[in-house]
Specification:
The complex is a heterodimer. By secondary structure, chain A is of the alpha/beta class. Chain A is 43% helix and 17% strand. Classes of the chains: A alpha/beta, B mainly alpha.
Protein backbone atom coordinates (compact mmCIF):
# COMPACT_ATOMS: atom_id res chain seq x y z
CA UNK A 1 0.00 0.00 0.00
CA UNK A 2 1.45 3.34 -1.08
CA UNK A 3 0.98 6.27 1.31
CA UNK A 4 1.15 9.99 0.59
CA UNK A 5 1.97 12.11 3.65
CA UNK A 6 1.08 15.78 3.19
CA UNK A 7 2.38 18.28 5.76
CA UNK A 8 4.27 21.58 5.51
CA UNK A 9 6.30 20.69 8.60
CA UNK A 10 9.31 18.49 7.74
CA UNK A 11 9.31 17.31 11.35
CA UNK A 12 5.71 16.11 11.13
CA UNK A 13 6.26 14.45 7.75
CA UNK A 14 9.16 12.53 9.22
CA UNK A 15 7.25 11.55 12.37
CA UNK A 16 4.26 10.30 10.36
CA UNK A 17 6.58 8.56 7.89
CA UNK A 18 8.52 6.83 10.71
CA UNK A 19 5.26 5.87 12.44
CA UNK A 20 3.99 4.30 9.22
CA UNK A 21 7.25 2.36 8.85
CA UNK A 22 6.81 1.17 12.43
CA UNK A 23 3.38 -0.12 11.43
CA UNK A 24 4.87 -1.97 8.48
CA UNK A 25 4.00 0.52 5.72
CA UNK A 26 7.29 1.23 4.01
CA UNK A 27 6.08 2.67 0.69
CA UNK A 28 5.63 6.31 1.65
CA UNK A 29 6.09 9.52 -0.31
CA UNK A 30 5.84 13.06 1.04
CA UNK A 31 4.36 16.37 -0.13
CA UNK A 32 4.69 19.76 1.54
CA UNK A 33 1.27 21.19 0.65
CA UNK A 34 -1.96 20.34 -1.16
CA UNK A 35 -0.71 21.49 -4.56
CA UNK A 36 2.46 19.43 -4.26
CA UNK A 37 0.32 16.47 -3.18
CA UNK A 38 -1.94 16.76 -6.24
CA UNK A 39 1.17 16.57 -8.40
CA UNK A 40 2.25 13.37 -6.62
CA UNK A 41 -1.11 11.63 -6.27
CA UNK A 42 -0.71 9.16 -9.16
CA UNK A 43 -0.40 5.60 -7.84
CA UNK A 44 -1.26 6.51 -4.26
CA UNK A 45 -3.47 4.19 -2.18
CA UNK A 46 -3.84 6.17 1.04
CA UNK A 47 -3.50 9.86 1.91
CA UNK A 48 -2.58 11.33 5.31
CA UNK A 49 -2.88 15.11 5.29
CA UNK A 50 -2.43 18.05 7.63
CA UNK A 51 -4.98 20.90 7.55
CA UNK A 52 -2.98 24.14 7.94
CA UNK A 53 -0.62 24.40 5.02
CA UNK A 54 0.46 27.21 2.70
CA UNK A 55 -0.42 27.31 -1.01
CA UNK A 56 -3.25 24.77 -0.66
CA UNK A 57 -4.67 23.67 2.70
CA UNK A 58 -5.55 20.12 3.59
CA UNK A 59 -9.24 20.96 3.39
CA UNK A 60 -8.87 22.45 -0.12
CA UNK A 61 -6.77 19.45 -1.11
CA UNK A 62 -9.44 17.05 0.19
CA UNK A 63 -12.14 18.88 -1.79
CA UNK A 64 -9.95 18.80 -4.91
CA UNK A 65 -9.39 15.05 -4.55
CA UNK A 66 -13.08 14.37 -3.90
CA UNK A 67 -14.09 16.34 -7.00
CA UNK A 68 -11.75 14.37 -9.25
CA UNK A 69 -13.39 11.22 -10.61
CA UNK A 70 -10.07 9.45 -10.88
CA UNK A 71 -9.07 9.92 -7.23
CA UNK A 72 -12.27 10.62 -5.32
CA UNK A 73 -12.34 7.08 -3.88
CA UNK A 74 -8.92 7.48 -2.18
CA UNK A 75 -9.00 7.19 1.60
CA UNK A 76 -7.99 10.41 3.35
CA UNK A 77 -6.98 10.66 6.99
CA UNK A 78 -6.66 14.18 8.34
CA UNK A 79 -3.99 14.69 11.04
CA UNK A 80 -4.15 18.19 12.49
CA UNK A 81 -3.85 20.38 15.57
CA UNK A 82 -7.44 21.55 15.03
CA UNK A 83 -9.43 19.84 17.73
CA UNK A 84 -12.64 21.82 18.05
CA UNK A 85 -15.94 20.28 17.00
CA UNK A 86 -16.71 22.77 14.21
CA UNK A 87 -13.37 22.00 12.52
CA UNK A 88 -13.87 18.26 12.81
CA UNK A 89 -17.36 18.58 11.32
CA UNK A 90 -16.04 20.77 8.49
CA UNK A 91 -13.35 18.23 7.62
CA UNK A 92 -15.84 15.37 7.66
CA UNK A 93 -18.24 17.37 5.51
CA UNK A 94 -15.37 17.76 3.03
CA UNK A 95 -15.37 13.92 3.19
CA UNK A 96 -12.16 12.99 4.93
CA UNK A 97 -12.51 9.38 6.05
CA UNK A 98 -11.26 9.92 9.56
CA UNK A 99 -9.66 12.50 11.83
CA UNK A 100 -6.64 12.48 14.15
CA UNK A 101 -5.78 15.33 16.51
CA UNK A 102 -2.12 16.24 17.09
CA UNK A 103 -0.22 15.29 19.12
CA UNK A 104 -1.12 11.73 18.23
CA UNK A 105 0.22 8.36 19.28
CA UNK A 106 1.22 5.53 16.91
CA UNK A 107 -1.65 3.52 18.40
CA UNK A 108 -4.23 6.13 17.35
CA UNK A 109 -2.69 6.37 13.87
CA UNK A 110 -2.80 2.56 13.50
CA UNK A 111 -6.38 2.41 14.78
CA UNK A 112 -7.59 5.03 12.27
CA UNK A 113 -5.72 3.51 9.32
CA UNK A 114 -7.07 0.06 10.18
CA UNK A 115 -10.62 1.43 10.53
CA UNK A 116 -10.45 3.13 7.13
CA UNK A 117 -8.96 0.09 5.38
CA UNK A 118 -11.58 -2.15 7.00
CA UNK A 119 -14.44 0.13 5.97
CA UNK A 120 -13.14 0.28 2.39
CA UNK A 121 -12.71 -3.47 2.13
CA UNK A 122 -16.29 -4.06 3.32
CA UNK A 123 -17.76 -1.64 0.77
CA UNK B 1 -22.57 116.30 20.57
CA UNK B 2 -26.15 116.18 21.69
CA UNK B 3 -27.54 114.24 24.60
CA UNK B 4 -28.57 111.31 22.45
CA UNK B 5 -25.13 110.88 20.99
CA UNK B 6 -23.55 111.24 24.45
CA UNK B 7 -25.85 108.53 25.76
CA UNK B 8 -24.79 106.20 22.92
CA UNK B 9 -21.11 106.79 23.74
CA UNK B 10 -21.78 105.96 27.41
CA UNK B 11 -23.61 102.76 26.40
CA UNK B 12 -20.73 101.74 24.16
CA UNK B 13 -18.27 102.47 26.99
CA UNK B 14 -20.33 100.31 29.35
CA UNK B 15 -20.22 97.54 26.80
CA UNK B 16 -16.47 97.99 26.42
CA UNK B 17 -16.09 97.93 30.18
CA UNK B 18 -18.13 94.72 30.33
CA UNK B 19 -15.90 93.26 27.63
CA UNK B 20 -12.75 94.17 29.57
CA UNK B 21 -14.33 92.75 32.70
CA UNK B 22 -15.14 89.48 30.82
CA UNK B 23 -11.62 89.45 29.44
CA UNK B 24 -10.20 89.82 32.94
CA UNK B 25 -12.35 86.91 34.13
CA UNK B 26 -11.28 84.84 31.12
CA UNK B 27 -7.57 85.53 31.59
CA UNK B 28 -6.94 82.86 34.27
CA UNK B 29 -8.88 80.32 32.20
CA UNK B 30 -6.95 81.23 29.06
CA UNK B 31 -3.71 81.02 31.04
CA UNK B 32 -4.68 77.61 32.43
CA UNK B 33 -5.53 76.47 28.91
CA UNK B 34 -2.20 77.75 27.64
CA UNK B 35 -0.35 76.00 30.49
CA UNK B 36 -2.30 72.81 29.77
CA UNK B 37 -1.34 72.98 26.08
CA UNK B 38 2.28 73.62 27.01
CA UNK B 39 2.21 70.45 29.08
CA UNK B 40 0.13 68.28 26.76
CA UNK B 41 2.03 68.96 23.52
CA UNK B 42 5.34 67.51 24.75
CA UNK B 43 3.37 64.64 26.27
CA UNK B 44 1.68 63.93 22.93
CA UNK B 45 5.03 64.12 21.19
CA UNK B 46 6.45 61.75 23.77
CA UNK B 47 3.57 59.31 23.19
CA UNK B 48 4.07 59.63 19.46
CA UNK B 49 7.79 58.92 19.80
CA UNK B 50 7.07 56.03 22.13
CA UNK B 51 4.70 54.46 19.62
CA UNK B 52 7.24 54.92 16.84
CA UNK B 53 9.96 53.30 18.95
CA UNK B 54 7.70 50.42 19.99
CA UNK B 55 6.65 49.90 16.41
CA UNK B 56 10.27 49.86 15.28
CA UNK B 57 11.02 47.08 17.78
CA UNK B 58 8.26 44.78 16.51
CA UNK B 59 10.17 43.62 13.38
CA UNK B 60 13.14 42.65 15.58
CA UNK B 61 10.85 40.68 17.88
CA UNK B 62 9.28 38.97 14.87
CA UNK B 63 12.69 38.08 13.44
CA UNK B 64 13.75 36.63 16.80
CA UNK B 65 10.58 34.53 16.99
CA UNK B 66 11.13 33.26 13.46
CA UNK B 67 14.69 32.31 14.38
CA UNK B 68 13.29 30.31 17.33
CA UNK B 69 11.17 28.29 14.88
CA UNK B 70 14.18 27.70 12.64
CA UNK B 71 16.36 26.67 15.59
CA UNK B 72 13.80 24.22 16.98
CA UNK B 73 13.29 22.79 13.49
CA UNK B 74 17.03 22.21 13.16
CA UNK B 75 17.33 20.71 16.65
CA UNK B 76 14.32 18.46 16.02
CA UNK B 77 15.88 17.19 12.79
CA UNK B 78 19.11 16.41 14.67
CA UNK B 79 17.19 14.51 17.35
CA UNK B 80 15.21 12.59 14.72
CA UNK B 81 18.50 11.68 12.98
CA UNK B 82 19.78 10.28 16.28
CA UNK B 83 16.52 8.41 16.90
CA UNK B 84 16.83 6.84 13.44
CA UNK B 85 20.45 5.83 14.16
CA UNK B 86 19.44 4.28 17.48
CA UNK B 87 16.65 2.34 15.71
CA UNK B 88 19.18 0.96 13.21
CA UNK B 89 21.58 0.03 16.03
CA UNK B 90 18.79 -1.71 17.97
CA UNK B 91 17.94 -3.78 14.89
CA UNK B 92 21.62 -4.69 14.47
CA UNK B 93 22.00 -5.71 18.14
CA UNK B 94 18.81 -7.77 17.97
CA UNK B 95 20.17 -9.50 14.88
CA UNK B 96 23.48 -10.17 16.66
CA UNK B 97 21.69 -11.61 19.70
CA UNK B 98 19.62 -13.84 17.43
CA UNK B 99 22.83 -14.99 15.71
CA UNK B 100 24.44 -15.81 19.08
CA UNK B 101 21.32 -17.70 20.12
CA UNK B 102 21.31 -19.90 17.03
CA UNK B 103 25.05 -20.56 17.27
CA UNK B 104 24.98 -21.34 20.96
CA UNK B 105 24.28 -24.91 21.93
CA UNK B 106 23.99 -24.01 25.56
CA UNK B 107 20.57 -22.98 26.88
CA UNK B 108 22.08 -21.39 29.95
CA UNK B 109 22.53 -18.13 28.01
CA UNK B 110 18.87 -17.98 26.99
CA UNK B 111 17.78 -15.88 30.02
CA UNK B 112 20.55 -13.39 29.18
CA UNK B 113 19.43 -13.19 25.55
CA UNK B 114 15.85 -12.61 26.63
CA UNK B 115 16.93 -9.94 29.09
CA UNK B 116 18.93 -8.14 26.39
CA UNK B 117 15.97 -8.33 23.98
CA UNK B 118 13.60 -6.94 26.61
CA UNK B 119 15.93 -4.06 27.30
CA UNK B 120 16.27 -3.38 23.58
CA UNK B 121 12.48 -3.39 23.24
CA UNK B 122 12.29 -0.86 26.07
CA UNK B 123 14.91 1.36 24.42
CA UNK B 124 12.96 1.10 21.13
CA UNK B 125 9.74 2.08 22.90
CA UNK B 126 11.44 5.04 24.60
CA UNK B 127 12.98 6.30 21.37
CA UNK B 128 9.54 6.06 19.76
CA UNK B 129 8.14 8.15 22.61
CA UNK B 130 10.91 10.73 22.06
CA UNK B 131 10.02 10.87 18.35
CA UNK B 132 6.30 11.32 19.04
CA UNK B 133 7.04 14.04 21.61
CA UNK B 134 8.82 16.00 18.90
CA UNK B 135 5.38 16.86 17.51
CA UNK B 136 5.71 19.72 19.96
CA UNK B 137 7.94 21.45 17.37
CA UNK B 138 5.13 21.67 14.82
CA UNK B 139 2.67 22.84 17.46
CA UNK B 140 4.95 25.53 18.92
CA UNK B 141 5.86 26.78 15.45
CA UNK B 142 2.14 27.31 14.80
CA UNK B 143 1.82 29.13 18.12
CA UNK B 144 4.76 31.36 17.15
CA UNK B 145 3.21 32.01 13.73
CA UNK B 146 0.01 33.04 15.52
CA UNK B 147 1.94 35.48 17.75
CA UNK B 148 3.69 36.92 14.69
CA UNK B 149 0.33 37.41 13.02
CA UNK B 150 -0.89 39.22 16.14
CA UNK B 151 2.20 41.43 16.12
CA UNK B 152 1.59 42.26 12.46
CA UNK B 153 -1.89 43.47 13.41
CA UNK B 154 -0.52 45.52 16.31
CA UNK B 155 2.08 47.11 14.05
CA UNK B 156 -0.62 48.05 11.56
CA UNK B 157 -2.77 49.63 14.28
CA UNK B 158 0.15 51.53 15.80
CA UNK B 159 1.14 52.73 12.35
CA UNK B 160 -2.37 54.11 11.79
CA UNK B 161 -2.27 55.79 15.18
CA UNK B 162 1.03 57.50 14.44
CA UNK B 163 -0.31 58.49 11.05
CA UNK B 164 -3.31 60.08 12.77
CA UNK B 165 -0.99 62.18 14.92
CA UNK B 166 0.30 63.55 11.64
CA UNK B 167 3.82 63.97 12.89
CA UNK B 168 5.55 60.78 11.93
CA UNK B 169 6.75 59.87 8.55
CA UNK B 170 4.65 56.77 8.13
CA UNK B 171 6.33 55.92 4.87
CA UNK B 172 9.55 55.42 6.79
CA UNK B 173 7.77 53.16 9.23
CA UNK B 174 6.33 51.17 6.39
CA UNK B 175 9.88 50.64 5.22
CA UNK B 176 10.59 49.18 8.64
CA UNK B 177 7.67 46.81 8.52
CA UNK B 178 7.90 43.16 9.50
CA UNK B 179 8.90 40.78 6.78
CA UNK B 180 6.16 38.28 7.64
CA UNK B 181 6.10 35.18 5.48
CA UNK B 182 2.91 35.52 3.45
CA UNK B 183 2.56 31.78 2.85
CA UNK B 184 2.32 30.74 6.50
CA UNK B 185 -0.88 29.22 7.75
CA UNK B 186 -1.39 28.21 11.32
CA UNK B 187 -3.87 27.08 13.91
CA UNK B 188 -4.01 29.90 16.45
CA UNK B 189 -5.45 27.45 18.99
CA UNK B 190 -2.76 24.80 18.54
CA UNK B 191 -1.85 23.23 21.89
CA UNK B 192 0.55 20.52 22.94
CA UNK B 193 -1.86 18.51 25.03
CA UNK B 194 -1.47 14.78 25.46
CA UNK B 195 -4.93 14.43 26.96
CA UNK B 196 -7.14 12.12 24.91
CA UNK B 197 -10.13 14.44 25.30
CA UNK B 198 -9.83 16.11 21.88
CA UNK B 199 -9.25 12.82 20.07
CA UNK B 200 -12.28 11.37 21.86
CA UNK B 201 -14.35 14.34 20.64
CA UNK B 202 -13.10 13.69 17.09
CA UNK B 203 -14.00 10.00 17.46
CA UNK B 204 -17.51 10.94 18.63
CA UNK B 205 -18.04 13.35 15.72
CA UNK B 206 -16.71 10.82 13.20
CA UNK B 207 -18.91 8.15 14.69
CA UNK B 208 -22.04 10.32 14.68
CA UNK B 209 -21.44 11.54 11.14
CA UNK B 210 -20.84 7.99 9.94
CA UNK B 211 -24.20 7.10 11.44
CA UNK B 212 -25.63 10.12 9.64
CA UNK B 213 -24.34 9.02 6.26
CA UNK B 214 -25.59 5.48 6.85
CA UNK B 215 -29.06 6.41 8.03
CA UNK B 216 -29.33 9.88 6.47
CA UNK B 217 -31.13 10.90 9.66
CA UNK B 218 -28.79 13.84 10.36
CA UNK B 219 -28.40 16.33 7.60
CA UNK B 220 -27.19 19.59 9.05
CA UNK B 221 -24.92 21.24 11.59
CA UNK B 222 -28.02 21.80 13.72
CA UNK B 223 -28.65 18.05 13.72
CA UNK B 224 -25.08 17.37 14.81
CA UNK B 225 -25.32 20.03 17.54
CA UNK B 226 -28.58 18.50 18.67
CA UNK B 227 -26.92 15.10 18.84
CA UNK B 228 -24.15 16.44 21.08
CA UNK B 229 -26.63 18.35 23.20
CA UNK B 230 -28.43 15.08 23.77
CA UNK B 231 -31.66 16.28 22.20
CA UNK B 232 -31.53 13.93 19.26
Amino acid sequence: MKFLVVDDSPTMRRIVNNSLKGLGYTDVIEAEDGKDALAKIEGIDFIITDWNMPVMTGLEFTKAVRSDDKYKHLPILMVTTRGVKDDIVEALQARVNNYVVKPFTPQVLKEKIDTIIKSISTQ
Amino acid sequence: MDNKEFSTVLTRMDELKALFSFGQRMMPIAKALFDFLQEIVPLLESINLSIQESNAKIPTAARKLNSVTQATELATTEILDLVDKIAVQITEIKSTVEGMRTQSENDKFEPSYKSIEEKLDNIEMNTNSIMMSLQVQDITSQQIAAVNHLMESVQGRLGSLVDDFGKANFDEMKGNSIDFPTDVTFDANAVYNKSTERQELANDVVSSMSTESESSSFSSQADIDALFAGTK
